[in-house]
Amino acid sequence: MSTTKKITVTALAAALGVTTLAACGGESKDSSASDGGSKPKTVTLVSHDSFAASASVLKEFTKETGYTVKVLKSGDAGAALNKEILTKGSPQGDVFFGVDNTLLSRALDNGLFTPYEAKGLGQVNDEAQLDKDKHRVTPVDTGDICVNYDKKYFADKKLAPPQSFDDLAKPAYKNLLVTENVATSSPGLGFLLGSVGKYGEDGWQDYWKKLKENGVKVVDGWEQAYNEEFSGSAGGKKAKADRPLVVSYASSPPAEVLFSKPQPTEAPTGVATGTCFRQTEFAGLLKGAKNEAGGKALLDFLVSRKFQEDMPLNMFVNPVIKDAKLPEVFTKFGAVAVKPQTVAPDTIAKNREQWVQSWSSLVLK
Amino acid sequence: MVLARTEVTKSVRGSAARLGLMAGPAVFFAVFFAYPVVAIVGRGLEIDGVWQFGRIGEVLSRPDILRVLWFTTWQALASTALTLLIALPGAYVFARFDFPGKRLLRAVVTVPFVLPTVVVGTAFLALLGRGGLLDELWGVRLDTTVWAILLAHVFFNYAVVVRTVGGLWSQLDPRQEEAARVLGAGRFAAWRRVTLPALGPAVAAGALMVFLFTFTSFGVVQILGGPTFSTVEVEIYRQTAQLLDLSTAAVLTLVQFAAVGAVLAVHAWTIRRRETALKLVDPAQTARRPRGPGQWALLGGVLATILLLVLAPLAVLVERSLDGPGGYGFDHYRALTAMDASGGAFLVPPIDAVWNSLRYALVATAIALVVGGLAAAALTRKAGRLLRGFDALLMLPLGVSAVTVGFGFLITLDKPPLDLRASWILVPLAQALVGVPFVVRMMLPVLRAVDGRLREAAAVLGASPLRVWREVDLPLVRRALLIAAGFAFAISLGEFGATVFIARPDNPTLPVAVARLLGRPGELNYGQAMALSTILMVVCAVALLVLERIRTDRSSGEF
């Protein structure tokens, strides 16, 4: 009988253990909400996986406002937004950050956000303010999707690196470019939209036919394109990659420098500055937010100088406020896009699916 | 009269006990699987209160969807066949031969199974792609061909066959086959008549799992197949996460359900035909050193296969993790213990991901063992139709995409008392969901193979049902239980699909951390990703190795 008892006790203990652990998990979550009558101390920021900020800057926010920021990373940009649409009305957090101009209309059409005019919005560059009159979203950063090149390759070949969309289709650059599937990758989609911006809704297909004839290679995601196929990146060198041109970001060269030890005096990669598409990322106060006051304070903070100047080295994007000081590694190794292409959010929303479909049958088949 | 009444009471008590055993797993699956999945599928197919069943026909007549379905099916069949072909000799060698380093090797071949596909794809490309081993030796490149996908599937699932089939094989009494040979049967005839039927359920279970994994393959197909190949799973992800076309995703989910259901039905049928009480013995007695040139050649062939197919890609990972800016060294590993220079990708040093992963995996294993153990115990005895249905139901999580479950969690577990969306327990729960089928699959063949007369004898002698389980079943299944625990643990360590949806930034798991590092440019990030992958690999190997030890130490005294 004693053995039976022992087993029962063990089984019970195991079951209780699991429940207790579960209870602990619940508790840590509740602690933010169960503050009784006083105002909640936590404000939850839902974002995509690329969100990053210095701990010191987040602490500064807490010091100024009394709110602690809890960050909830929710997958890639598309998935994160779609989750918010699915949980509309019962959101996971208070503020959502990371909807860009390619997805903006989907967010606005679904009515995700409570309008709020952030303090300090006057400092924000006009061309970033795509929802200027309604203030449903607040612009936070811009980034340029551009073709990067492997400096060493072009120096060795004594060939000038390409500068423009037109260059990429020239025979001199045959079989050199790798890009991403526009259906599954946001830089891939950005590059397609760049070509739409450049050649128009009627001309982009011809351009891509030329690119295909010129041997453009398509892989599924940025990680593969950049780390496996692009000969200029650290990963690509190890993988003996053989494509010296890749669709990436204007900020990738500074990152190559920053994340090397010892830091080189020159970036190993450069940017074809005439091949860029401008992405603007926005944040908004979620409808049904539990901590609306905290959410508003957070939105104010996202366009404050402190956060804006901290952003470049964390997320490798550009500030949207006027006269923000850029870190040296950015000014020294980064590139400024020459007339980056843009497409209006409404036009993108209307045509995205159809463009992706025709691109797929044109380039992948 | 008296006798009859006792029997009636007993059988009533028996089925009541079984219902009691089933209640736990049933509630678990209802709340954390069925409810979320049904809700998200419903969201896709029910618009303004009207069910849009017409959508099913519409979606299934689209040529691009049909192409995806066709590719998914044939590559899964081909992958399964190839895996069985390559891994069955391995299962035999691990079951019947004794050779130095066997335990280590058995642990190592399991490592790929639990590595995140992001990492494996990278390592595999280094071998099969441009400048890879094959390219340098023979100028053969397999990276955008379907061969890369098939071989990667073998790499991932080799251990599934070796462990499910080999596990049972090592416990089959070789004397039965010897007896047949003494009675005049040839070597092959003896194997075919005696061993093969006994192995049947295990082979079927192994093949079924490989088929399920390759049918629902995601990362491998995405990385190695390029954008031209797409499986149903990839398509569901795309439709749900990228396009928010929930109705197409719902139809595809239903198709996946139907396919998995059909596979499970075939599986149940083969089991019923083959199921017999097997005489199980201690594996230590069945393995011996190889004898004769034929057996040595077989051993050599299996070892060479493992070296090429399993160890070489893993070695590439290690090599890259050590390849620092100033030659080979541990720079990338040291960098893992520091906070990000800029405070960037994580709010904690990347090395913390190791402890997060271990903690999650332990809780997930506990949940999987309790739920799976109860379910297996309930399913042991000769089952009616209801119970067989329950059996099949437990396998479904393996055939349903992580994105469906993840999005389902999001829209169902959002109200108190089940507002778990921000709770850490969601991670182990999602991981356990994938672990439970393994626990059930591994324990059930062994539990069922226990001779029922042993239980009856014990019961006649006055033992309570619990006592019978403790004295008869437990000693015989302890090994299976430990292997199942090891599998559940390792799967939880490597689980990525569901975890990435719910892991919080202050406590990323290892695979999530690897993916985040790979998502940023720069040599340090890449090197750290490789170093973390190597750590994940070593942690899994050690966990599996420890289990192999415990098993032998304990079981040696009991047989």
Number of strands of chain A: 10
* Straight-line N-to-C gap of chain B: 41 Å
- Could you tell me how far the N terminus lies from the C terminus of chain A, measured between alpha carbons in angstroms? 71 Å
Biggest protein-protein interface? Answer: A-B, 77 and 71 residues
Looking at the structure, what is the overall shape of chain B?
globular
Please estimate the helix content of chain A.
40-55%
Helix content estimate of chain B: over 70%
Class of secondary structure makeup of chain B: mainly alpha
Please count the helical segments of chain A. 14
Q: pLDDT under 50 segments of chain B (min length 5)?
A: 341-345, 553-559
Major β-sheet annotation of chain B = 2 strands, antiparallel
Question: Which structural category do the helix and sheet elements of chain A fall into?
Answer: alpha/beta
How would you spell out the order of helices and strands of chain A? Answer: HEHEHEHEEHHEHEHHEHEHHEHH
Topology pattern of chain B, helix = H, strand = E: HEEHHHHHHHHHHHHHEEHHHHHHHHHH
Query: How is the biggest beta sheet of chain A arranged?
Result: 10 strands, mixed
Number of strands of chain B: 4
Instruction: Compute the average pLDDT of chain A.
Output: 86
List keywords for this structure.
heterodimer, A: 365 residues, alpha/beta, 10-stranded mixed β-sheet, 14 helices, 44% helix, globular, B: 559 residues, mainly alpha, two-stranded antiparallel ribbon, 4 strands, 76% helix, 1% strand, disordered C terminus
